[in-house]
Amino acid sequence: MPLERELKFSVLDAYVPSLSEVRAALAPIPFEVEAQGVQELHDRYFDDDAGSLRGAGLALRRRRLGGKSWAGLKATGSFDGALHERDELEVPMAGEGDHAGWPDAIVERLAGLVDVGALEPRVELDTTRALFRVLRGDEAIADLGFDAVAARAPGAERSAFFDEVEIEARGGATRADLEQIAEAVDGLVTLTPNPVNKLERAAALLLLATW
């Protein structure tokens, strides 16, 4: 599976700087910035009753964005401070709904690990993402996202909320590139390195919530 590399940070509020603020912060590096608009991401994470995927260090989701759906399979991977690296397989979905068939590439990866017919949604994440693309010359090197996340158990009325900033590598971006971007953004909003991914953070918050 392709390797996903990103810096993940917690933030205390949902403040999103303007394009001009981000451009000014990154200008000394010097990187260029393009606004990519606001995205509404609707993610549903699946597992069986025994937590077989979680036990195998995997997370399986269905994502809806802009009228399209993708199946995504991610390994737990590793982290070092804010840096997260993990294998990721993302495949377009042919159908809609929680029980639409999984793509063949996903089923093949899950063979021997879990009965795909026993998979049910376990956690729902709805994310509003203000997205910026960072470029060095004509090369896109990172996506910078300011995320406001609502997490809930399937069918639950109440949600847990948190805010994050992610800086995901593109092309040939290095860790040093990502850290330069983070240092610049930290001048706009205070960034706290986050050692867990969104699913892990959501699961912890939901466990502690009073429903």
Question: What does the model show?
Answer:
It is a single chain. With 211 residues, the chain is an alpha+beta fold. It has one domain: Hypothetical Protein Pfu-838710-001. 19% of the residues lie in helices and 46% in strands. The protein is built from 5 helices and 10 strands, in the order E-H-E-H-E-E-E-E-H-E-E-E-H-E-H. It is globular and about 50 Å long. The model has no long low-confidence stretch (mean pLDDT 92).
Taking pLDDT < 50 over at least 5 consecutive residues as the criterion, the unreliable ranges are none
How far the N terminus sits from the C terminus, by CA atoms, comes to: 38 Å
Fraction of residues in β-strands: over 45%
CATH superfamily: Hypothetical Protein Pfu-838710-001
Number of helical runs?
A: 5
Largest sheet: 8 strands, antiparallel, barrel
CATH-derived topology: Hypothetical Protein Pfu-838710-001
Look at the helices and sheets and give the structural class.
alpha+beta
